[in-house]
C-alpha cells in the first residue's frame, strides 16, 4: 500500500507539471483529492491492515495528500496573480488624460419660480414660514372657519390618513400655526410655500400634488386697498410693469370679503389670444380679508386687528410665465424639457 501511495504521488506531480490553466488544475484536484479519488480508495482499504501498519500508512497517505495540495495551491496562486495582472492591465487608467466633464445641473422651473416669488415678497418685508405636509384636521379646516360637515370642505377633496390626520390641502395651516405662535402679537407678514395634496384626476391642468404659496398680513388698520396694492406690485415684479390686475368677488370660508385676482395676459398684453381665451385676462390667485372668526380662533381681537390673505398655485404661475401647456411636464423628469430652463 505504501508503494501504491508513492506511485500516486509521482503520477499526480507529473500530471500537475503539465497543467497550464485553471480548468485543468480543478480537474486534477477532483481527480486525486476528491471523494472518489485514488487516495481516498487507498485509505478505505486500511481496515485490512494490522494495528501496527495503520498509523504508518496513514502518515504516508497524509504526506502524499499534502504534497499534491501544496503543488495545487502554488499553481492556484500563480493563476490568480496572472489573472489580477491581466485585469489591471485591461483596466489601466491614463491619469494624464483630461477628465470627462460632468454635466452641470440646474434648478427645476418650479424651484426657480418659487425663488422668484420669495425674493419679491422678501423685498416687501415678508418672511418665509413652513409647516408639516401631514396635517391635523383642526389646522387644515376647523381653524380656518371650516367646521365638521361644512359644505365648503367638498371644495377640497382630501387624502385622509385617519379621521383627524390628512395630507394638507393648502398651506393655510401654516398661517394658523404662525398666528398661534405669535399669541396675538403684530405685525404678522409671512408667505408660506409648500406642496399640497388633493384628490384630483391628473390631466394637462390638474395634479393630485402641486405647489402653493400663500401670504398673510395682520396688523392694525389693514384694508382691502393694501391687499390690492400688494398684489399689483407682486404681479408687476413677476410679469412686468405693464401688467394690471382686476379683482372679482368670490367666496372662501376663511376670508370675507373674498376675491379672485386676474392679470392681463402676458402673451397678448390684454388684447385677447388663445392663452386667455380671447378675454385678455388670466386668473392667477384667490385672496381676501381674513375672516373675523379665523382671527378670533387664532387669538386676535377682530375689533382691533385685521388682515388679508392670498394664495396662488406655483405651477399655474410657471405655466403662464413660460407658456407651458401641460402641468405634467413638471413631474415627468424629462431632461429635454428641463434643460430649456437651465439658463433662465
Automatic annotation (TrEMBL):
Entry GO MF terms: ATP binding; catalytic activity, acting on a protein; magnesium ion binding; phenylalanine-tRNA ligase activity; transferase activity; tRNA binding
Catalytic activity entry: tRNA(Phe) + L-phenylalanine + ATP = L-phenylalanyl-tRNA(Phe) + AMP + diphosphate + H(+)
Leader sequence segment: none
Keywords linked to the UniProt accession: Aminoacyl-tRNA synthetase, ATP-binding, Cytoplasm, Ligase, Magnesium, Metal-binding, Nucleotide-binding, Protein biosynthesis
GO aspect biological process, one term: phenylalanyl-tRNA aminoacylation
Cofactor note text: Binds 2 magnesium ions per tetramer.
Gene3D superfamilies for this protein: Bira Bifunctional Protein, Domain 2
Domain Aminoacyl-transfer RNA synthetases class-II family profile positions: 111-340
Location in or out of the cell: Cytoplasm
GO CC, one annotated term: cytoplasm
Cofactor(s) needed: Mg(2+)
Pfam families for this protein: Phe_tRNA-synt_N, tRNA-synt_2d
UniProt-listed Enzyme Commission number(s): 6.1.1.20
Residues reported to bind Mg(2+): 256
Location (main, coarse): cytoplasm
Subunit structure: Tetramer of two alpha and two beta subunits.
UniProt family annotation: Belongs to the class-II aminoacyl-tRNA synthetase family. Phe-tRNA synthetase alpha subunit type 1 subfamily.
Matching PANTHER family: PHENYLALANINE--TRNA LIGASE, MITOCHONDRIAL, PHENYLALANYL-TRNA SYNTHETASE
Name the UniProt record assigns to this protein: Phenylalanine--tRNA ligase alpha subunit
Native species: Paenibacillus xerothermodurans
Amino acid at each position: 500500500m505504501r508503494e501504491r501511495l508513492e506511485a500516486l504521488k509521482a503520477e499526480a506531480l507529473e500530471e500537475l507539471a503539465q497543467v497550464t490553466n485553471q480548468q485543468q488544475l480543478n480537474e486534477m484536484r477532483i481527480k486525486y483529492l476528491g471523494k472518489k479519488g485514488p487516495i481516498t480508495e487507498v485509505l478505505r482499504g486500511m481496515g485490512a491492515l494490522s494495528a501496527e501498519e495503520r498509523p504508518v500508512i496513514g502518515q504516508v497517505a497524509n504526506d502524499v495528500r499534502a504534497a499534491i495540495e501544496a503543488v495545487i495551491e502554488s499553481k492556484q496562486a500563480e493563476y490568480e496573480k496572472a489573472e489580477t495582472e491581466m485585469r489591471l492591465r485591461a483596466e489601466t487608467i491614463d491619469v494624464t488624460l483630461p477628465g470627462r466633464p460632468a454635466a452641470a445641473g440646474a434648478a427645476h422651473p418650479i424651484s426657480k419660480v418659487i425663488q422668484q416669488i420669495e425674493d419679491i415678497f422678501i423685498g416687501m418685508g415678508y418672511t418665509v414660514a413652513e409647516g408639516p405636509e401631514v396635517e391635523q384636521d383642526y389646522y387644515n379646516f376647523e381653524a380656518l372657519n371650516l367646521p365638521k360637515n361644512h359644505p365648503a370642505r367638498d371644495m377640497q377633496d382630501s387624502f385622509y390618513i385617519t379621521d383627524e390626520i390628512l395630507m394638507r390641502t393648502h398651506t393655510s395651516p401654516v398661517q394658523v400655526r404662525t398666528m398661534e405662535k405669535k399669541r396675538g402679537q403684530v405685525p404678522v407678514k409671512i408667505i408660506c410655500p409648500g406642496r399640497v395634496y388633493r384628490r384630483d384626476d391628473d390631466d394637462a391642468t390638474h395634479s393630485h400634488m402641486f405647489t402653493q404659496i400663500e401670504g398673510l398680513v395682520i396688523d392694525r388698520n389693514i384694508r382691502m386697498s393694501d391687499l390690492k396694492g400688494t398684489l399689483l406690485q407682486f404681479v408687476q415684479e413677476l410679469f412686468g410693469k405693464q401688467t394690471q390686475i382686476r379683482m372679482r368677488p368670490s367666496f372662501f370660508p376663511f376670508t370675507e370679503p373674498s376675491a379672485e385676482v386676474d392679470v392681463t395676459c402676458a402673451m397678448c398684453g390684454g388684447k385677447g389670444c388663445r392663452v386667455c381665451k380671447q378675454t385678455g385676462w388670466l386668473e392667477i390667485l384667490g385672496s381676501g380679508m381674513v375672516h373675523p372668526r379665523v382671527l378670533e380662533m387664532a387669538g386676535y381681537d377682530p375689533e382691533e386687528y385685521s388682515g388679508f390673505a392670498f394664495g396662488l398655485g406655483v405651477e399655474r404661475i410657471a405655466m403662464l410665465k413660460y407658456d407651458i401647456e401641460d402641468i405634467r411636464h413638471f413631474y415627468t423628469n424629462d431632461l429635454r424639457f428641463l434643460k430649456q430652463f437651465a439658463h433662465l
